[in-house]
Amino acid sequence: MGGAIMNGLPLSYEQALKEWRRFEAYLIRERYAVRDPVSGVPLEQNLAQVLDRISRQFTIPEVRDAILAGRIITATPFLMNGGNPYTRRQGFYSCYPLGYVEDSNEAIFQMEHDLGVIFLHCGGGGIDVSKLRPRGALVDNGQGLASGPVSFAKGFSQLSARISQGGKRRGALMIQADWDIPDIREFVSFKAEETGRYSGCNVSVNVTSERFWQDENLLDFIATNIWKSGDPGLLFTQKSLDNTPVPRRYNPIFSNPCGEYLSTRETACNLLTVCLPRCFGASMGDYLEAVFANARLAALAGNEILDLGGFPPLARIREATLLFRPIGVGATGLHHAMNHHGVSYNDPEGAPRFAKATQLVLMLGSMQGSLDYASRCRELGRDLEVREWRLDYVERISSAAMTFIEAHLDAPQIWLDRALRLFDRVRRLGGLYNSVTTSQPPTGSTSQLMKVACTGIEPYYSLVQKRRVWNADSTWEEFTLVPLELYHAEPSSVAWVEGQTAHHISPVQQIRVIEACQAFNHTAVSKTINLPAEATVADIKELLFIARDSSLKGITIFRDSSMPGVLVAGVGPEAGQDGSHPGPAGAAASSFSACPICGMRTAKRSGGCSFCIACGFSTC
User: Fold this and answer.
1) How far apart are CA 358 and CA 355, in angstroms?
2) Is residue 325 a part of any domain in this protein?
3) Which range of residues forms the domain containing residue 116?
4) Alpha-carbon distances of 140 from 101, 107, 137, 331, rounded to whole Å
5) Is residue 234 situated within a structural domain?
6) What are phi and psi of 459, to 5 degrees?
7) Taking a C-beta distance cutoff of 8 angstroms, is the pair 255, 127 a contact?
8) How many separate domains does the chain show?
9) Which of 64, 102, 106, 402 is deepest in the core (most CB within 10 A)?
10) What CA–CA distance (Å, rounded) separates 564 from 355?
Protein backbone atom coordinates (compact mmCIF):
# COMPACT_ATOMS: atom_id res chain seq x y z
CA MET A 1 0.00 0.00 0.00
CA GLY A 2 1.34 3.39 -0.96
CA GLY A 3 1.55 6.22 1.55
CA ALA A 4 0.66 9.86 1.07
CA ILE A 5 4.26 10.97 0.51
CA MET A 6 5.05 8.12 -1.85
CA ASN A 7 2.29 8.79 -4.36
CA GLY A 8 1.53 12.48 -3.84
CA LEU A 9 -1.98 11.89 -2.50
CA PRO A 10 -3.21 14.02 0.42
CA LEU A 11 -4.08 11.10 2.72
CA SER A 12 -2.47 7.83 3.66
CA TYR A 13 -4.25 4.68 2.57
CA GLU A 14 -5.53 4.13 6.11
CA GLN A 15 -6.86 7.69 6.30
CA ALA A 16 -8.50 7.40 2.88
CA LEU A 17 -10.18 4.12 3.80
CA LYS A 18 -11.43 5.68 7.03
CA GLU A 19 -12.98 8.56 5.05
CA TRP A 20 -14.78 6.16 2.71
CA ARG A 21 -16.12 4.26 5.72
CA ARG A 22 -17.27 7.49 7.35
CA PHE A 23 -19.05 8.42 4.14
CA GLU A 24 -20.65 4.98 3.93
CA ALA A 25 -21.91 5.37 7.51
CA TYR A 26 -23.35 8.78 6.62
CA LEU A 27 -25.19 7.43 3.57
CA ILE A 28 -26.55 4.46 5.48
CA ARG A 29 -27.65 6.62 8.40
CA GLU A 30 -29.28 9.37 6.35
CA ARG A 31 -30.67 7.44 3.39
CA TYR A 32 -30.61 3.65 3.37
CA ALA A 33 -31.09 2.34 6.91
CA VAL A 34 -34.34 0.85 8.15
CA ARG A 35 -35.43 2.95 11.13
CA ASP A 36 -37.15 2.16 14.36
CA PRO A 37 -40.81 3.08 13.74
CA VAL A 38 -41.17 4.84 17.11
CA SER A 39 -37.86 6.61 17.68
CA GLY A 40 -36.67 6.97 14.07
CA VAL A 41 -33.24 5.69 15.13
CA PRO A 42 -31.42 3.81 12.32
CA LEU A 43 -31.40 0.05 12.87
CA GLU A 44 -28.57 -0.46 10.35
CA GLN A 45 -25.14 1.12 10.57
CA ASN A 46 -23.22 -0.16 7.55
CA LEU A 47 -23.55 -1.39 3.99
CA ALA A 48 -23.08 -5.04 4.96
CA GLN A 49 -26.25 -4.90 7.05
CA VAL A 50 -28.23 -3.27 4.22
CA LEU A 51 -26.98 -5.82 1.69
CA ASP A 52 -27.82 -8.65 4.07
CA ARG A 53 -31.39 -7.34 4.35
CA ILE A 54 -31.99 -6.97 0.64
CA SER A 55 -30.20 -10.20 -0.29
CA ARG A 56 -32.72 -12.14 1.77
CA GLN A 57 -35.47 -10.96 -0.59
CA PHE A 58 -34.03 -13.07 -3.42
CA THR A 59 -34.59 -16.80 -3.80
CA ILE A 60 -31.66 -17.53 -6.14
CA PRO A 61 -28.50 -18.32 -4.13
CA GLU A 62 -26.16 -17.00 -6.84
CA VAL A 63 -27.93 -13.64 -6.77
CA ARG A 64 -27.73 -13.43 -2.99
CA ASP A 65 -24.01 -14.20 -3.10
CA ALA A 66 -23.34 -11.58 -5.80
CA ILE A 67 -25.17 -8.91 -3.80
CA LEU A 68 -23.37 -9.74 -0.57
CA ALA A 69 -20.03 -9.65 -2.41
CA GLY A 70 -20.83 -6.27 -3.99
CA ARG A 71 -20.51 -7.58 -7.55
CA ILE A 72 -24.01 -6.34 -8.31
CA ILE A 73 -26.18 -3.81 -6.52
CA THR A 74 -29.78 -2.71 -6.86
CA ALA A 75 -30.89 0.88 -7.31
CA THR A 76 -31.50 3.15 -4.32
CA PRO A 77 -35.27 2.51 -3.93
CA PHE A 78 -34.77 -1.22 -3.38
CA LEU A 79 -31.82 -0.56 -1.07
CA MET A 80 -34.13 1.63 0.99
CA ASN A 81 -37.26 -0.49 0.88
CA GLY A 82 -36.42 -4.09 0.01
CA GLY A 83 -37.20 -6.12 3.13
CA ASN A 84 -38.15 -3.02 5.16
CA PRO A 85 -40.98 -4.24 7.41
CA TYR A 86 -42.01 -0.78 8.57
CA THR A 87 -42.35 1.45 5.52
CA ARG A 88 -45.81 2.36 4.26
CA ARG A 89 -44.35 3.92 1.12
CA GLN A 90 -42.78 0.85 -0.40
CA GLY A 91 -41.28 1.56 -3.80
CA PHE A 92 -38.66 -0.56 -5.56
CA TYR A 93 -38.14 1.39 -8.80
CA SER A 94 -36.06 4.42 -9.64
CA CYS A 95 -38.12 6.35 -12.14
CA TYR A 96 -41.20 6.42 -14.26
CA PRO A 97 -41.53 7.94 -17.75
CA LEU A 98 -45.21 8.88 -17.65
CA GLY A 99 -45.55 10.25 -21.18
CA TYR A 100 -47.77 13.08 -22.34
CA VAL A 101 -49.66 15.43 -20.06
CA GLU A 102 -52.99 15.53 -21.86
CA ASP A 103 -54.60 18.89 -22.60
CA SER A 104 -57.22 19.21 -19.89
CA ASN A 105 -57.31 20.53 -16.35
CA GLU A 106 -58.30 17.09 -15.12
CA ALA A 107 -55.29 15.46 -16.80
CA ILE A 108 -52.91 18.11 -15.44
CA PHE A 109 -54.18 17.67 -11.90
CA GLN A 110 -54.04 13.89 -12.26
CA MET A 111 -50.42 14.11 -13.39
CA GLU A 112 -49.56 16.26 -10.38
CA HIS A 113 -51.18 13.66 -8.14
CA ASP A 114 -49.39 10.76 -9.82
CA LEU A 115 -46.00 12.47 -9.64
CA GLY A 116 -46.56 13.19 -5.96
CA VAL A 117 -47.35 9.53 -5.30
CA ILE A 118 -44.26 8.43 -7.24
CA PHE A 119 -41.98 10.84 -5.37
CA LEU A 120 -43.33 9.59 -2.04
CA HIS A 121 -42.53 6.03 -3.13
CA CYS A 122 -38.85 6.76 -3.86
CA GLY A 123 -39.16 7.33 -7.60
CA GLY A 124 -38.57 10.11 -10.10
CA GLY A 125 -40.77 10.98 -13.07
CA GLY A 126 -40.63 12.05 -16.68
CA ILE A 127 -43.39 13.94 -18.46
CA ASP A 128 -43.97 15.51 -21.88
CA VAL A 129 -45.89 18.80 -22.09
CA SER A 130 -46.04 18.98 -25.91
CA LYS A 131 -49.81 18.43 -26.04
CA LEU A 132 -50.72 21.33 -23.76
CA ARG A 133 -52.21 24.21 -25.71
CA PRO A 134 -49.96 27.26 -26.15
CA ARG A 135 -50.01 30.46 -24.14
CA GLY A 136 -52.87 32.68 -25.30
CA ALA A 137 -54.98 29.92 -26.89
CA LEU A 138 -58.71 30.18 -26.27
CA VAL A 139 -60.18 28.11 -23.43
CA ASP A 140 -63.63 27.76 -21.87
CA ASN A 141 -65.48 28.16 -25.15
CA GLY A 142 -63.61 31.37 -25.93
CA GLN A 143 -64.11 32.95 -22.51
CA GLY A 144 -60.50 32.74 -21.38
CA LEU A 145 -56.90 32.32 -22.47
CA ALA A 146 -54.53 29.41 -21.78
CA SER A 147 -51.46 30.06 -19.66
CA GLY A 148 -49.39 27.66 -21.80
CA PRO A 149 -47.28 24.55 -21.15
CA VAL A 150 -44.42 26.41 -19.47
CA SER A 151 -46.62 27.66 -16.64
CA PHE A 152 -47.49 24.06 -15.84
CA ALA A 153 -43.88 22.94 -16.30
CA LYS A 154 -42.92 25.43 -13.59
CA GLY A 155 -45.58 24.00 -11.30
CA PHE A 156 -44.39 20.45 -11.89
CA SER A 157 -40.81 21.55 -11.13
CA GLN A 158 -41.85 23.11 -7.85
CA LEU A 159 -43.78 19.97 -6.93
CA SER A 160 -40.62 17.92 -7.47
CA ALA A 161 -38.59 20.32 -5.33
CA ARG A 162 -41.14 20.18 -2.48
CA ILE A 163 -41.67 16.44 -2.14
CA SER A 164 -38.86 14.13 -1.07
CA GLN A 165 -38.51 10.61 -2.44
CA GLY A 166 -39.66 8.32 0.34
CA GLY A 167 -38.69 10.98 2.87
CA LYS A 168 -35.00 10.38 2.07
CA ARG A 169 -34.05 12.50 -0.98
CA ARG A 170 -35.76 15.17 -3.03
CA GLY A 171 -37.85 14.35 -6.07
CA ALA A 172 -36.43 14.11 -9.59
CA LEU A 173 -38.21 15.11 -12.78
CA MET A 174 -37.62 15.35 -16.53
CA ILE A 175 -39.86 17.63 -18.59
CA GLN A 176 -39.81 17.13 -22.36
CA ALA A 177 -41.38 19.13 -25.18
CA ASP A 178 -41.27 18.92 -28.97
CA TRP A 179 -39.01 21.44 -30.68
CA ASP A 180 -41.84 22.86 -32.82
CA ILE A 181 -44.43 23.70 -30.16
CA PRO A 182 -45.44 27.40 -30.33
CA ASP A 183 -43.99 28.12 -26.88
CA ILE A 184 -40.64 26.45 -27.49
CA ARG A 185 -38.48 29.52 -26.80
CA GLU A 186 -40.19 30.10 -23.46
CA PHE A 187 -39.74 26.41 -22.66
CA VAL A 188 -36.05 26.47 -23.54
CA SER A 189 -35.29 29.51 -21.40
CA PHE A 190 -37.53 29.33 -18.33
CA LYS A 191 -34.88 27.78 -16.07
CA ALA A 192 -32.12 30.17 -17.15
CA GLU A 193 -34.28 33.27 -16.72
CA GLU A 194 -34.86 32.61 -13.03
CA THR A 195 -31.73 30.77 -11.97
CA GLY A 196 -32.30 28.32 -9.15
CA ARG A 197 -36.05 28.85 -8.89
CA TYR A 198 -36.98 25.84 -11.02
CA SER A 199 -34.27 23.44 -9.92
CA GLY A 200 -36.78 20.62 -9.43
CA CYS A 201 -36.49 19.41 -13.01
CA ASN A 202 -34.28 18.73 -15.97
CA VAL A 203 -35.54 20.05 -19.31
CA SER A 204 -35.10 18.45 -22.73
CA VAL A 205 -36.23 19.31 -26.24
CA ASN A 206 -37.52 16.49 -28.45
CA VAL A 207 -35.89 16.65 -31.89
CA THR A 208 -38.64 15.02 -33.94
CA SER A 209 -37.66 16.16 -37.43
CA GLU A 210 -34.61 17.03 -39.52
CA ARG A 211 -36.23 20.43 -39.99
CA PHE A 212 -35.05 21.28 -36.48
CA TRP A 213 -31.48 21.56 -37.75
CA GLN A 214 -32.50 24.15 -40.36
CA ASP A 215 -33.87 26.58 -37.76
CA GLU A 216 -30.71 28.58 -37.09
CA ASN A 217 -32.41 31.05 -34.76
CA LEU A 218 -33.75 28.30 -32.52
CA LEU A 219 -30.43 26.43 -32.55
CA ASP A 220 -28.58 29.58 -31.51
CA PHE A 221 -31.15 30.21 -28.79
CA ILE A 222 -30.84 26.67 -27.43
CA ALA A 223 -27.03 26.76 -27.50
CA THR A 224 -27.04 30.10 -25.69
CA ASN A 225 -29.30 28.77 -22.94
CA ILE A 226 -27.16 25.66 -22.54
CA TRP A 227 -24.16 27.97 -22.21
CA LYS A 228 -25.97 29.94 -19.51
CA SER A 229 -27.59 27.20 -17.46
CA GLY A 230 -26.97 23.67 -18.75
CA ASP A 231 -30.55 23.38 -20.00
CA PRO A 232 -32.07 22.15 -22.21
CA GLY A 233 -30.77 18.78 -23.27
CA LEU A 234 -31.78 17.32 -26.61
CA LEU A 235 -33.56 13.98 -27.14
CA PHE A 236 -33.37 12.44 -30.62
CA THR A 237 -36.71 10.68 -30.84
CA GLN A 238 -36.13 8.94 -34.18
CA LYS A 239 -32.99 7.29 -32.85
CA SER A 240 -34.96 6.20 -29.79
CA LEU A 241 -37.54 4.59 -32.05
CA ASP A 242 -34.96 2.95 -34.32
CA ASN A 243 -32.41 1.66 -31.83
CA THR A 244 -34.41 -0.36 -29.34
CA PRO A 245 -36.02 -3.80 -29.34
CA VAL A 246 -39.35 -2.22 -28.31
CA PRO A 247 -41.79 -2.11 -31.26
CA ARG A 248 -42.42 1.39 -32.62
CA ARG A 249 -46.16 1.19 -31.97
CA TYR A 250 -45.43 1.52 -28.24
CA ASN A 251 -43.66 4.86 -28.88
CA PRO A 252 -40.58 4.33 -26.66
CA ILE A 253 -39.45 7.97 -26.62
CA PHE A 254 -40.22 9.08 -23.07
CA SER A 255 -37.39 9.78 -20.66
CA ASN A 256 -36.72 9.40 -16.97
CA PRO A 257 -35.06 12.34 -15.13
CA CYS A 258 -31.47 11.51 -16.09
CA GLY A 259 -32.06 10.27 -19.62
CA GLU A 260 -30.83 6.66 -19.39
CA TYR A 261 -34.25 5.05 -19.68
CA LEU A 262 -36.06 5.98 -22.89
CA SER A 263 -39.12 3.79 -23.05
CA THR A 264 -42.84 3.49 -23.47
CA ARG A 265 -45.06 5.51 -21.16
CA GLU A 266 -46.02 4.48 -17.63
CA THR A 267 -43.38 1.80 -17.14
CA ALA A 268 -41.04 1.75 -14.15
CA CYS A 269 -37.32 1.55 -14.78
CA ASN A 270 -35.86 -1.30 -12.76
CA LEU A 271 -32.12 -0.61 -12.59
CA LEU A 272 -29.33 -2.98 -11.55
CA THR A 273 -25.60 -2.22 -11.58
CA VAL A 274 -22.60 -4.47 -12.18
CA CYS A 275 -19.49 -3.29 -10.31
CA LEU A 276 -16.77 -3.58 -12.95
CA PRO A 277 -13.79 -3.31 -10.54
CA ARG A 278 -15.05 -6.49 -8.87
CA CYS A 279 -14.89 -8.30 -12.21
CA PHE A 280 -11.11 -8.03 -12.56
CA GLY A 281 -9.16 -11.23 -13.18
CA ALA A 282 -5.81 -12.29 -14.53
CA SER A 283 -6.63 -11.16 -18.07
CA MET A 284 -9.05 -9.17 -20.20
CA GLY A 285 -10.75 -12.45 -21.06
CA ASP A 286 -11.35 -13.20 -17.38
CA TYR A 287 -12.76 -9.70 -16.91
CA LEU A 288 -15.23 -10.07 -19.77
CA GLU A 289 -16.35 -13.48 -18.53
CA ALA A 290 -17.01 -12.00 -15.10
CA VAL A 291 -18.95 -9.06 -16.58
CA PHE A 292 -21.10 -11.52 -18.54
CA ALA A 293 -21.71 -13.70 -15.46
CA ASN A 294 -22.62 -10.79 -13.21
CA ALA A 295 -24.85 -9.14 -15.83
CA ARG A 296 -26.73 -12.45 -16.02
CA LEU A 297 -27.18 -12.42 -12.23
CA ALA A 298 -28.28 -8.78 -12.31
CA ALA A 299 -30.96 -9.68 -14.86
CA LEU A 300 -32.15 -12.52 -12.63
CA ALA A 301 -32.31 -10.07 -9.71
CA GLY A 302 -34.25 -7.53 -11.76
CA ASN A 303 -36.83 -10.12 -12.71
CA GLU A 304 -37.24 -11.21 -9.10
CA ILE A 305 -37.80 -7.58 -8.09
CA LEU A 306 -40.55 -7.30 -10.70
CA ASP A 307 -42.26 -10.34 -9.22
CA LEU A 308 -41.89 -9.00 -5.68
CA GLY A 309 -43.98 -5.97 -6.68
CA GLY A 310 -43.07 -2.81 -4.80
CA PHE A 311 -45.08 -0.54 -7.09
CA PRO A 312 -46.61 2.78 -6.02
CA PRO A 313 -50.41 2.60 -5.64
CA LEU A 314 -51.04 3.45 -9.31
CA ALA A 315 -52.58 0.40 -10.95
CA ARG A 316 -51.85 1.33 -14.55
CA ILE A 317 -48.11 1.65 -13.83
CA ARG A 318 -48.03 -1.79 -12.26
CA GLU A 319 -49.95 -3.23 -15.23
CA ALA A 320 -47.78 -1.54 -17.88
CA THR A 321 -44.53 -2.48 -16.14
CA LEU A 322 -45.51 -6.13 -15.79
CA LEU A 323 -46.75 -6.15 -19.39
CA PHE A 324 -43.32 -5.06 -20.68
CA ARG A 325 -41.13 -6.32 -17.79
CA PRO A 326 -38.28 -3.85 -18.50
CA ILE A 327 -35.01 -4.27 -16.63
CA GLY A 328 -31.98 -2.05 -16.96
CA VAL A 329 -28.63 -3.69 -16.27
CA GLY A 330 -25.80 -1.16 -16.30
CA ALA A 331 -22.29 -0.84 -14.94
CA THR A 332 -20.13 1.33 -12.76
CA GLY A 333 -16.39 1.94 -12.55
CA LEU A 334 -15.72 1.92 -16.30
CA HIS A 335 -12.80 4.35 -16.01
CA HIS A 336 -11.15 2.25 -13.29
CA ALA A 337 -11.64 -0.84 -15.45
CA MET A 338 -10.03 0.88 -18.43
CA ASN A 339 -7.01 1.97 -16.42
CA HIS A 340 -6.66 -1.45 -14.80
CA HIS A 341 -6.23 -2.88 -18.30
CA GLY A 342 -3.81 -0.16 -19.38
CA VAL A 343 -6.29 1.90 -21.40
CA SER A 344 -6.58 5.67 -21.00
CA TYR A 345 -10.01 7.32 -21.07
CA ASN A 346 -8.34 9.77 -23.45
CA ASP A 347 -7.36 7.08 -25.98
CA PRO A 348 -9.46 7.85 -29.10
CA GLU A 349 -9.48 4.20 -30.22
CA GLY A 350 -8.70 2.19 -27.10
CA ALA A 351 -11.26 3.76 -24.76
CA PRO A 352 -14.28 3.33 -27.09
CA ARG A 353 -13.14 -0.20 -27.95
CA PHE A 354 -12.87 -1.15 -24.27
CA ALA A 355 -16.25 0.46 -23.49
CA LYS A 356 -17.91 -1.32 -26.40
CA ALA A 357 -16.46 -4.70 -25.40
CA THR A 358 -17.70 -4.22 -21.84
CA GLN A 359 -21.16 -3.12 -22.99
CA LEU A 360 -21.43 -5.99 -25.47
CA VAL A 361 -20.81 -8.72 -22.90
CA LEU A 362 -23.00 -6.86 -20.39
CA MET A 363 -25.85 -6.97 -22.92
CA LEU A 364 -25.27 -10.64 -23.74
CA GLY A 365 -25.18 -11.54 -20.06
CA SER A 366 -28.40 -9.66 -19.32
CA MET A 367 -30.13 -11.37 -22.26
CA GLN A 368 -28.97 -14.75 -20.97
CA GLY A 369 -30.39 -13.83 -17.57
CA SER A 370 -33.77 -13.11 -19.14
CA LEU A 371 -33.83 -16.57 -20.72
CA ASP A 372 -32.62 -18.27 -17.55
CA TYR A 373 -35.26 -16.59 -15.40
CA ALA A 374 -37.99 -17.84 -17.72
CA SER A 375 -36.52 -21.36 -17.51
CA ARG A 376 -36.53 -21.15 -13.74
CA CYS A 377 -40.15 -20.04 -13.74
CA ARG A 378 -41.08 -23.03 -15.91
CA GLU A 379 -39.39 -25.36 -13.42
CA LEU A 380 -41.60 -23.82 -10.74
CA GLY A 381 -44.75 -24.33 -12.81
CA ARG A 382 -45.15 -20.80 -14.17
CA ASP A 383 -44.83 -19.70 -17.78
CA LEU A 384 -43.59 -16.21 -18.60
CA GLU A 385 -44.85 -14.66 -21.81
CA VAL A 386 -42.36 -13.57 -24.45
CA ARG A 387 -42.13 -9.80 -24.91
CA GLU A 388 -42.02 -8.97 -28.60
CA TRP A 389 -38.75 -7.61 -30.00
CA ARG A 390 -38.32 -5.87 -33.34
CA LEU A 391 -36.58 -8.42 -35.53
CA ASP A 392 -34.98 -5.75 -37.74
CA TYR A 393 -33.28 -4.44 -34.61
CA VAL A 394 -32.24 -7.97 -33.64
CA GLU A 395 -30.65 -8.52 -37.07
CA ARG A 396 -28.82 -5.22 -36.96
CA ILE A 397 -27.45 -5.58 -33.44
CA SER A 398 -26.54 -9.26 -33.87
CA SER A 399 -24.59 -8.41 -37.02
CA ALA A 400 -22.79 -5.59 -35.20
CA ALA A 401 -21.99 -7.92 -32.30
CA MET A 402 -20.53 -10.63 -34.55
CA THR A 403 -18.41 -8.12 -36.44
CA PHE A 404 -17.04 -6.59 -33.23
CA ILE A 405 -16.31 -9.97 -31.64
CA GLU A 406 -14.37 -11.20 -34.66
CA ALA A 407 -12.32 -8.01 -34.86
CA HIS A 408 -11.60 -7.22 -31.22
CA LEU A 409 -12.19 -9.99 -28.66
CA ASP A 410 -9.70 -12.62 -27.58
CA ALA A 411 -10.95 -16.22 -28.00
CA PRO A 412 -13.56 -14.92 -30.46
CA GLN A 413 -15.06 -18.32 -31.21
CA ILE A 414 -16.31 -18.71 -27.64
CA TRP A 415 -18.07 -15.36 -27.81
CA LEU A 416 -19.31 -15.92 -31.36
CA ASP A 417 -20.91 -19.22 -30.34
CA ARG A 418 -22.47 -17.64 -27.26
CA ALA A 419 -23.86 -14.66 -29.17
CA LEU A 420 -25.11 -16.85 -32.02
CA ARG A 421 -27.05 -19.08 -29.60
CA LEU A 422 -28.59 -16.08 -27.87
CA PHE A 423 -29.69 -14.28 -31.01
CA ASP A 424 -30.99 -17.48 -32.60
CA ARG A 425 -33.11 -18.02 -29.51
CA VAL A 426 -34.47 -14.47 -29.73
CA ARG A 427 -35.37 -15.04 -33.39
CA ARG A 428 -37.18 -18.30 -32.62
CA LEU A 429 -39.09 -16.77 -29.72
CA GLY A 430 -39.80 -13.49 -31.48
CA GLY A 431 -38.36 -11.64 -28.52
CA LEU A 432 -37.25 -12.13 -24.92
CA TYR A 433 -38.95 -12.29 -21.56
CA ASN A 434 -38.10 -8.63 -20.91
CA SER A 435 -38.81 -5.78 -23.34
CA VAL A 436 -35.31 -4.39 -22.65
CA THR A 437 -32.45 -5.67 -20.50
CA THR A 438 -29.86 -2.86 -20.48
CA SER A 439 -29.71 0.79 -19.41
CA GLN A 440 -26.78 2.91 -18.23
CA PRO A 441 -27.63 5.25 -15.33
CA PRO A 442 -25.31 7.66 -13.49
CA THR A 443 -25.35 5.15 -10.53
CA GLY A 444 -24.45 7.88 -8.03
CA SER A 445 -24.50 6.99 -4.37
CA THR A 446 -24.93 3.26 -4.95
CA SER A 447 -21.53 3.26 -6.65
CA GLN A 448 -19.94 5.25 -3.87
CA LEU A 449 -21.31 2.80 -1.32
CA MET A 450 -19.09 0.26 -3.11
CA LYS A 451 -16.18 2.73 -2.91
CA VAL A 452 -16.22 3.39 -6.66
CA ALA A 453 -15.00 6.95 -7.26
CA CYS A 454 -15.68 6.99 -11.04
CA THR A 455 -19.42 6.33 -11.07
CA GLY A 456 -21.19 4.81 -14.05
CA ILE A 457 -19.23 5.43 -17.25
CA GLU A 458 -17.97 8.83 -16.09
CA PRO A 459 -14.25 9.56 -15.87
CA TYR A 460 -12.90 10.37 -12.44
CA TYR A 461 -14.28 13.81 -11.62
CA SER A 462 -11.06 14.54 -9.74
CA LEU A 463 -8.54 12.50 -7.79
CA VAL A 464 -9.59 14.17 -4.55
CA GLN A 465 -13.29 14.81 -4.02
CA LYS A 466 -14.35 17.07 -1.19
CA ARG A 467 -17.93 16.30 -0.29
CA ARG A 468 -19.92 18.45 2.08
CA VAL A 469 -23.37 17.19 2.98
CA TRP A 470 -26.18 18.35 5.19
CA ASN A 471 -26.99 16.39 8.32
CA ALA A 472 -30.54 16.09 9.61
CA ASP A 473 -29.70 18.75 12.25
CA SER A 474 -28.78 21.25 9.49
CA THR A 475 -25.04 21.04 10.12
CA TRP A 476 -22.38 20.38 7.50
CA GLU A 477 -20.32 17.22 7.40
CA GLU A 478 -17.27 17.03 5.13
CA PHE A 479 -15.56 14.02 3.57
CA THR A 480 -12.35 13.79 1.55
CA LEU A 481 -12.68 10.89 -0.88
CA VAL A 482 -9.64 9.58 -2.73
CA PRO A 483 -9.89 6.57 -5.10
CA LEU A 484 -8.44 3.68 -3.10
CA GLU A 485 -7.05 1.99 -6.20
CA LEU A 486 -4.51 4.81 -6.56
CA TYR A 487 -2.69 3.59 -3.47
CA HIS A 488 -1.74 0.41 -5.30
CA ALA A 489 -0.28 2.36 -8.24
CA GLU A 490 3.13 3.80 -9.00
CA PRO A 491 3.45 7.61 -8.79
CA SER A 492 3.74 7.79 -12.57
CA SER A 493 0.44 5.91 -12.88
CA VAL A 494 -1.27 8.35 -10.51
CA ALA A 495 -0.12 11.24 -12.71
CA TRP A 496 -1.34 9.30 -15.77
CA VAL A 497 -4.80 8.91 -14.21
CA GLU A 498 -4.88 12.56 -13.15
CA GLY A 499 -4.47 13.53 -16.79
CA GLN A 500 -7.71 11.70 -17.53
CA THR A 501 -9.99 13.48 -15.05
CA ALA A 502 -13.23 14.97 -16.32
CA HIS A 503 -12.00 18.35 -17.52
CA HIS A 504 -9.01 16.81 -19.29
CA ILE A 505 -11.28 14.72 -21.53
CA SER A 506 -12.27 16.52 -24.73
CA PRO A 507 -15.99 16.74 -25.49
CA VAL A 508 -15.52 14.71 -28.67
CA GLN A 509 -13.77 11.95 -26.73
CA GLN A 510 -16.62 11.93 -24.21
CA ILE A 511 -19.06 11.46 -27.08
CA ARG A 512 -16.95 8.61 -28.48
CA VAL A 513 -17.20 6.73 -25.18
CA ILE A 514 -20.95 7.33 -24.85
CA GLU A 515 -21.46 6.18 -28.43
CA ALA A 516 -19.50 2.99 -27.71
CA CYS A 517 -21.69 2.26 -24.69
CA GLN A 518 -24.84 3.07 -26.68
CA ALA A 519 -23.96 0.57 -29.41
CA PHE A 520 -25.18 -2.45 -27.41
CA ASN A 521 -27.63 -0.73 -25.07
CA HIS A 522 -31.38 -1.31 -25.45
CA THR A 523 -32.37 2.03 -23.93
CA ALA A 524 -29.88 4.87 -23.40
CA VAL A 525 -26.79 6.13 -21.60
CA SER A 526 -26.70 8.85 -18.97
CA LYS A 527 -23.45 10.78 -19.29
CA THR A 528 -22.86 14.50 -19.14
CA ILE A 529 -20.62 16.23 -21.69
CA ASN A 530 -18.40 18.41 -19.50
CA LEU A 531 -17.07 21.68 -20.91
CA PRO A 532 -14.61 24.13 -19.34
CA ALA A 533 -15.79 27.62 -18.45
CA GLU A 534 -14.16 29.19 -21.51
CA ALA A 535 -16.27 27.15 -23.94
CA THR A 536 -18.34 29.35 -26.25
CA VAL A 537 -21.87 29.19 -27.58
CA ALA A 538 -20.37 28.23 -30.94
CA ASP A 539 -18.57 25.30 -29.28
CA ILE A 540 -21.84 24.08 -27.83
CA LYS A 541 -23.66 24.43 -31.13
CA GLU A 542 -20.95 22.41 -32.87
CA LEU A 543 -21.33 19.64 -30.28
CA LEU A 544 -25.06 19.50 -30.94
CA PHE A 545 -24.33 18.74 -34.60
CA ILE A 546 -21.71 16.14 -33.66
CA ALA A 547 -24.29 14.44 -31.45
CA ARG A 548 -26.81 14.56 -34.29
CA ASP A 549 -24.40 12.66 -36.53
CA SER A 550 -23.58 10.08 -33.86
CA SER A 551 -25.64 7.17 -32.53
CA LEU A 552 -26.46 9.04 -29.31
CA LYS A 553 -30.14 9.16 -28.40
CA GLY A 554 -29.70 12.50 -26.71
CA ILE A 555 -27.14 14.94 -25.39
CA THR A 556 -26.74 17.00 -22.25
CA ILE A 557 -23.94 19.57 -22.07
CA PHE A 558 -22.69 21.45 -19.03
CA ARG A 559 -20.22 24.30 -19.16
CA ASP A 560 -18.42 24.82 -15.89
CA SER A 561 -19.52 28.11 -14.26
CA SER A 562 -22.68 28.18 -16.35
CA MET A 563 -24.63 29.22 -13.27
CA PRO A 564 -24.06 32.63 -11.64
CA GLY A 565 -21.87 32.48 -8.56
CA VAL A 566 -20.25 29.19 -9.53
CA LEU A 567 -16.57 29.73 -10.31
CA VAL A 568 -13.67 27.72 -11.67
CA ALA A 569 -10.35 27.45 -9.86
CA GLY A 570 -7.75 29.63 -11.53
CA VAL A 571 -10.23 31.33 -13.85
CA GLY A 572 -11.39 34.89 -13.53
CA PRO A 573 -14.86 36.39 -13.72
CA GLU A 574 -17.75 35.00 -15.70
CA ALA A 575 -17.36 35.06 -19.46
CA GLY A 576 -18.92 37.69 -21.64
CA GLN A 577 -22.42 37.38 -23.01
CA ASP A 578 -21.09 36.15 -26.33
CA GLY A 579 -19.47 33.17 -24.63
CA SER A 580 -15.93 34.43 -25.16
CA HIS A 581 -13.53 33.90 -22.27
CA PRO A 582 -9.94 34.97 -21.69
CA GLY A 583 -9.19 32.26 -19.11
CA PRO A 584 -6.78 29.36 -19.64
CA ALA A 585 -8.02 26.25 -21.39
CA GLY A 586 -8.56 23.15 -19.32
CA ALA A 587 -8.59 24.88 -15.93
CA ALA A 588 -9.32 22.55 -13.06
CA ALA A 589 -12.96 22.62 -12.05
CA SER A 590 -13.91 23.43 -8.50
CA SER A 591 -17.62 23.51 -9.20
CA PHE A 592 -20.30 22.12 -11.43
CA SER A 593 -23.60 23.18 -12.95
CA ALA A 594 -24.79 19.60 -13.34
CA CYS A 595 -24.20 16.93 -10.76
CA PRO A 596 -21.58 14.43 -12.01
CA ILE A 597 -23.09 11.81 -9.69
CA CYS A 598 -26.87 11.90 -10.20
CA GLY A 599 -27.12 13.90 -13.44
CA MET A 600 -29.63 16.46 -12.14
CA ARG A 601 -29.00 20.08 -13.07
CA THR A 602 -29.38 21.22 -9.47
CA ALA A 603 -26.13 22.88 -8.41
CA LYS A 604 -26.05 25.45 -5.64
CA ARG A 605 -23.15 27.49 -4.25
CA SER A 606 -22.64 27.70 -0.49
CA GLY A 607 -19.71 28.23 1.84
CA GLY A 608 -17.12 28.01 -0.93
CA CYS A 609 -18.53 24.75 -2.27
CA SER A 610 -20.86 23.72 -5.06
CA PHE A 611 -23.36 21.10 -4.01
CA CYS A 612 -26.20 19.16 -5.59
CA ILE A 613 -29.48 19.58 -3.75
CA ALA A 614 -30.75 16.35 -5.34
CA CYS A 615 -28.16 13.84 -4.09
CA GLY A 616 -25.77 15.81 -1.89
CA PHE A 617 -22.62 15.55 -4.02
CA SER A 618 -20.34 18.52 -3.51
CA THR A 619 -16.93 19.78 -4.48
CA CYS A 620 -14.99 22.60 -2.85
Assistant:
1) 5
2) no
3) 95-263
4) 19, 16, 10, 51
5) yes
6) -70, 165
7) no
8) 1
9) 64
10) 35
